Amino acid sequence: MKKEVVTYKNGEFVDYMGNTHKFVVAAVSTSNFDISLNLYDDFADVVEQDHAVPKGIFIGIAICNPKDEFDEKKGKMIAYNKAVGVKDLNHPAMYSTRPGFINTEVVDALLNNIVNYVKKDPGSVIEGYDDAKRKYMKKLADQEFLSNSSETLKKLATNIKSLTSEEVIDLNKLIELV
Asked: What DSSP string describes 21-34?
């Protein structure tokens, strides 16, 4: 059985609504993967000549919904399963055929980098995050615009909300005439 070393790092970020999301990143360092993918053809000759065993680091990230209570043990399990459950184990986050190049310091640096990356850009790992943020920010901007509007515009907005679709069409025609 091939050796597998697992390292975890916790992090948290505050989202666009002010909610804190805690998360766990798992780095699984292993030589238990196939190097035969075309992407690594340039390295295949080196591996065969040197009889080097390729080593890769696979990454998994588990992000806790802020509505749920953070459970570090569960987060580690989910992050680990995501790291080892990647669809194609030919795509490690980092790869080397040189003994000693992937070590504790490299793994720690990679984990720190990923934690900082998730903090700065949660949308890169949370599906739909960027769209939800954009919609939320637009809603806030619209609310701010309305609250800063004159009383006349506020009354007009209230009246417009009650118009039928035919009346909205007529209103558009009226605006073009004015």
From this structure: EEEEEEEEEES-S-
